[in-house]
Amino acid sequence: MNSIEVTVDKSHIVTIGERLYGESIELIRELINNAYDADASEVKVTLKDDFITVEDDGIGMDLDGLKQYFNIGSTLKRNNPKSPKFERDRIGEFGIGKFASLSACSNFGVWTKKGDFQAEAVFDKEEWKASSDKWQIPLNIEEPDHRLKDGTKVTLKGLTKRFNIDDVERRIIEAVPIKAPNFSVYLNGHKVSARFIPGHKIPFMEGTEYGVVWGEIIISSQLEQDMSEAGIECKVKQVTITRDFFGLEELIKNIARIKGEVNADFLPITSDRTGFIKDTAQYKKFFEVMEKVIKRIRPVLEELSDYKENKRAKRALTEILAKVKNALILNPDYCPEGLIPIAEGVSDTGGPGLLQAKASASSIDKEKAQQIDKVEKKKRKRKPVVKRLTPTAVVRKLKLGQQGVSCCIDHLGPDGPECLTEGAIIYVNRDHPLYQQEARKKDTYILHIARLLTQEICLMKDPRNPRQAFQRQSRLLRDALVDKPFNLPASSA
């Protein structure tokens, strides 16, 4: 039987590191995770302009371990998914991560000690390419120094790229299991710790036939946000593979505030550990679970989104109602029943005094007063009509006359009316596209709310004559929003 010999060109070994790991910063992540898999309690990373070292106190390697280390595509970790000492879920699977080092250096040496075995192997990229007929890597077996702990130290020399220490620390935080017990990472002598993110945290946990999906979504309260850190970190074995928003960008205006993490250790990942294999049952189930999680917490997120806006809405509404009140005092003929202010002298605060609708005949027409009395009695007998409010509705009352008017800013839906009036309550729709547009700037926001309030108040006065109502609205808007000295009107009312 004829056969064909399968050969691999040596240049492909270098290509694995240079192309598979396009981001050279990944080499540090890979070396730290190798230490984690080797049951290290402490990893020290030294980052300099001309070299990098990653030293750990793990179990170290003997001669067979070194051979496995340089075995391309070794199945050792896949066949032994738990570490021997701490029984950690091992991160590495493919046995090619160490070649990420070749994307940023020309020489890396591996020193290791395990019991009575101590040695150093050096991989030089140029020598490897030059000796096309040799596959061996130089190995120097040393006399064991029993004063030294077991462990491994990788040294990278001949760096072809420079690393920003802040970028390295950020990558360690998101791509290394620094939250794991009995495990610490130090970068240039500084312990790397997970950053605390202030904000509202929403935890979740869901079971599937493949394993558990758990984590938390954080809506950060910080004003200044870094978009490079936005999104929910999707982790496998405590290592971030990708970031995703899972549709939350439709609910939160400033997507840089969306943070958090989701853990699903059963997800299959690509060989370069930068993505998931999406055409699998496991990934489809994971995405299905996340859709359910987002749907369930959607009301919470909508409330959180409202809270920030509500601070501004309350201030603006209080300011607008005060101005509209003054405008109504200037124009008492425009007031609907129950809102009629009666001027009489000056109040203790220096402003115009207000009498109730049951004033004396000398200050208001008797017949009109009787009509108002009848209307008020009728209203008191009638059950008030009110809409069910959402938990984040903003309500403020215009206190004027006997009845007053309440203004409520609430969710009525994007297809709902811009505003409406029921009884003595004016509802403003915060979902309406015009509200959304005008709410972006303070001046247009105040004008928008003032326009809607005066519109409804004028229609309450005479709903059968909208033309006159809008003319009166224009006058109220002018008196409410155009700065002028406050003058008490003549008692034409």
Can you tell me about this structure?
- The protein has 493 residues and is an alpha+beta fold.
- Helix content is 32%, strand content 23%.
- It is built from eleven helices and 19 strands.
- The chain has an eight-stranded mixed beta sheet with strand order 5-4-3-6-2-1-7-8. Strands 9-10-13-11-12 form a five-stranded mixed beta sheet, with helices on one face. A four-stranded mixed beta sheet has the order 16-17-19-18, with helices on one face.
- Helix 2 crosses helix 6, helix 7 crosses helix 10 and helix 10 crosses helix 11.
- It starts with 10 loop residues before the first helix and ends in a 12-residue tail after the last helix.
Defining traits:
493 residues; alpha+beta; 11 helices; 32% helix; elongated; disordered C terminus
Please specify the SSE layout and strand pairing.
Blueprint: H1 11-20, H2 26-37, E1 42-47, E2 51-56, H3 63-69, H4 76-79, E3 105-114, E4 117-124, H5 125-130, E5 139-141, E6 151-159, H6 165-175, E7 184-187, E8 190-191, E9 199-207, E10 212-220, E11 232-236, E12 239-244, E13 258-263, H7 281-330, E14 342-346, E15 352-355, H8 366-381, E16 394-398, E17 405-410, E18 419-422, E19 425-429, H9 433-438, H10 442-461, H11 466-481
Parallel strand pairs: 1-7, 11-13, 17-19
Antiparallel strand pairs: 1-2, 2-6, 3-4, 3-6, 4-5, 7-8, 9-10, 10-13, 11-12, 14-15, 16-17, 18-19
What gross morphology would you assign? elongated
User: Which whole number gives the mean pLDDT?
Assistant: 79
Taking the alpha carbons of the first and last residues, their distance comes to 115 Å
Secondary-structure element pattern, one letter each: HHEEHHEEHEEHEEEEEEEHEEHEEEEHHH
Report the uncertain regions: 343-364, 380-385, 485-493
How many DSSP H or I helices?
11
**Structural class computed from helices and strand pairing:** alpha+beta
